[in-house]
Amino acid sequence: MRRTHLTACISIGSLAALGSSALLLASSHREAPQITEMPKLDATDFYMFRSYETGQSDKVILIANYLPLQAPYGGPNYFSLDPDALYEIHVDNNGDALEDITFQFRFSTRLEDVKLPIGVGANQKQVSIPLIQAGTIAAGNNANLNSKESYSLKVVFGDRRNGVVNDVSVTGTGATTFTKPVDNIGTKTIADYNAYAAQYIYPITLPGGAQGRVFVGQRKDPFVVNLGETFDLINTNPLGPVNGETDDLADANVTSLILEVPISFLDEVSPTIGGWTSASVRQARVVDPTPNFDAVSGAQLTTLEGGAWTQVSRLGMPLVNEVVIGVKAKDLFNSSEPKDDIQFLDYVTHPTLPALIEILFPVTAPTAIPRNDLVQVFLTGVPGLNETTTPCEMLRLNTTIAPVAKGSQSNLGVLGADTAGFPNGRRPGDDVVDMALRVVMGVLLPLVDAPSGQLPYTDGALVDDSFFDDTFPFLKAPLAGSPN
Predict the structure, then answer these.
(1) For the chain, how far is it from start to end, CA to CA, in angstroms?
(2) In b/e form, how buried is each residue of 206-244, taking b as 16+ CB within 10 angstroms?
(3) 102 phi/psi in degrees, rounded to 5
(4) CA-to-CA distance for 182 and 218, rounded, in angstroms?
(5) What burial class does residue 67 get, using C-beta atoms within 10 Å of its C-beta: 0-12 exposed, 13-18 middle, 19+ buried?
(6) Percent of the chain having pLDDT more than 70?
(7) Which of 93-97, 175-179, 294-298 has the lowest mean pLDDT?
(8) Which of 107, 123, 218, 355 has the smallest C-beta neighbourhood within 10 Å, fewest atoms?
(9) Which residues are within 8 A (CB) of 4 and not within 5 positions of it... i.e. 6 or more apart?
(10) What CA–CA distances, in Å, run from 236 to 26, 73, 228, 352, 441?
C-alpha cells in the first residue's frame, strides 16, 4: 500500500476517536455521568501492541487502566479495586464484533487487623490501628501490610457469560491467587518501590500451556494531556509548540491490569485482532447498614450484591466516549457492546468538534459531510492494515506487523510512517491527541474540502516512547505519596 493512502486511513481512525465535542483531549477519565459515581470501575485507557521488549516480539501486550486521577498522597486507604466488580479484557479474533477470548479479573481485600496494646495493666486494650500499614514494607517482606489485595485471573473462550471458563495459574507453582502490590505510599514505608512491585510480576500458564506474564498494580498515569485548558473550550493555542503546555496528569497515578500473551494464543483465526476492556457490577446492590470486616476471613462486608452482571464501563479506542458520544448517550455507550455500535453512527458521520473549533479559532472546518472517511476506520479498520469484517468500535491490531524498538518509534504512529503504532493498536508512547486533532480538521481530505486541514494541530503536551520502559510491564512506577 502506498504511504499516502495508509497515512490518510490512519488519520481517519484517529479522527473518529475524537469526533464530536469541544472537550477533545482527555482519554476516558470520568467520561460519562454514571461512571463518576463508580470511580473504581472507570476505565481510563486501553493499550494493545506487539511487545517491543527484546526477545518478546511474539507476544501481545494488553493494558487496561482503571480508577483515574489518583493523587499519590491519597491515604490513608489509597486506591483498591472493587471486590464486588468484574474487570475484563476482551479479544475478538475473527472480526465479528463479538468477544472470542475474555480475561477476567476479580479482586479481594483481606484485613489483617493489626492491633497495638494501649495502656498498662488492667487498663490495657488491644486496639486496631487506623492505617493500612503497620511498619516498613520491602521486597520479600509484606508482613507489615495491614490491608492486602489479591486477585484471580480466568480466561473465557466464547461468550463472556456462557463460554468455557479456565483458571490462569502461576507457572511453576500452580497457584491461582495473585498478590496485588500496595500503592506507593511513600519512601519511608517502601524505600525501593520498583523492587517491591517487581516481585509481583508473575509468569503465568494459560489454557493449553501457553506462557505469558501478568502484573496488576498502581502505575504512573501514562496518558499525557493539557486537561484543564482543553476542557475550558480549548483555552490554549492548538497551533502552538509541542511540549509548550502543561500535562495535567503529570502528578496522577492509575491502577493497571497488564498482560503479556503469545500472539498464537490470540490470533488463531485472523492476524488482525480487536480488543476492548470493560467493568461490570451486579444489577442489585444493597448497602449494609452495619458495614464491617469479617472476623474470620478478613473480607470487607459493605454491600449485598445480586442479579446478573451489568456492564457500566467500556473502552476500546481512546477518546471515543469522552468526546465522540453525545452526553445523552454516554452511559448507554458504556453499557453497550461493539456488535451494537451502529446506533452511534451519527456521532461519527456528523462530528461537531470541527465546527466548534471553527467557532473558537480562525480556522475552517471540513465541509465533507457525512464524514464517510471516518466511518471506514472507526467502524471497519483500515484496508490493507487492520480491517475487520463487522463494523464496530474497538482497538484493532495487525499482529503480523513487526514491533518498533523504543527510541525508534514515531509518537505519531502511522502518521509518522510507523505502522506498528496507533491506530494499528496503541502503544503508551503514541500521541493520540495530536494525531486526532490533525485528522479531525481534515489533514486527509482534499484542500477544497478541508481548507485548514494541513495545519500542525497539537495540544502542546508531549508524549513519546522515552516516557516508558522497554521491558514488561512498560509503564513507569507510580509517584510516591511522600517522596521525602
Answers:
(1) 54
(2) bbeeeebbbbbbbbbbbbbbbbebbbeebebebeeebee
(3) -130, 130
(4) 8
(5) buried
(6) 92
(7) 294-298
(8) 123
(9) none
(10) 14, 29, 10, 19, 16
Over residues 43-72, the mean pLDDT reads 97
> Kindly report the CA angle at 177 between 174 and 183, in degrees rounded to 5?
135
Residue with cell 483555552: 235
- Report the pLDDT value the prediction gives residue 9, as an integer from 0 to 100: 35
Could you give the 3-state DSSP secondary structure of residue 437?
helix
DSSP 301-362: EEEEEEEEEEEEEEESSTTIIIIIS-GGGHHHHHH--GGGGGGGHHHHHS-SHHHHHHHHSS
More confident call, 376 vs 38: 38
Q: What share of the chain is helix, strand, coil (3-state, %, to 5)?
A: 20, 30, 50
Contact 126, 181 (CB under 8 A): no
- Cis omega before residue 130 (within 30°)? no
Task: Sort residue 324 into left (φ over 0), alpha (ψ -120 to 50) or beta.
Answer: alpha
**Biggest distance spanned by C-alpha atoms of the chain:** 89
Whole-number pLDDT of residue 24: 38
E strands present in 235-299: 253-262, 272-293
Contact present, 44 and 231 (Cβ < 8 Å): no
Q: How far apart are CA 6 and CA 261, in angstroms?
A: 28
Q: Are 298 and 310 in contact (CB under 8 A)?
A: no
Which class for 188: exposed (0-12), middle (13-18), buried (19 or more C-beta within 10 A)?
exposed
- As a three-state string, the secondary structure of 395-435 is EEEECCCCCCCCCCCCCCHHHHCCCCCCCECECCCCCHHHH
- Report d(CA 230, CA 329) in Å as an integer: 22
For cell 451486579, name the residue. 282
Distance CA 273, CA 318 (A): 17
| Non-local CB neighbours of 435 within 8 Å, separated by 6+ positions | 10, 11, 14, 412, 413, 415, 422
DSSP codes of every residue in 356-397: HHHHHSS-------S-HHHHIIIII--TTTT--SS----EEE
Backbone angles phi, psi at 331, to 5 degrees: -65, -35
Q: Nearest 5 degrees, angle CA 8-CA 324-CA 440?
A: 30
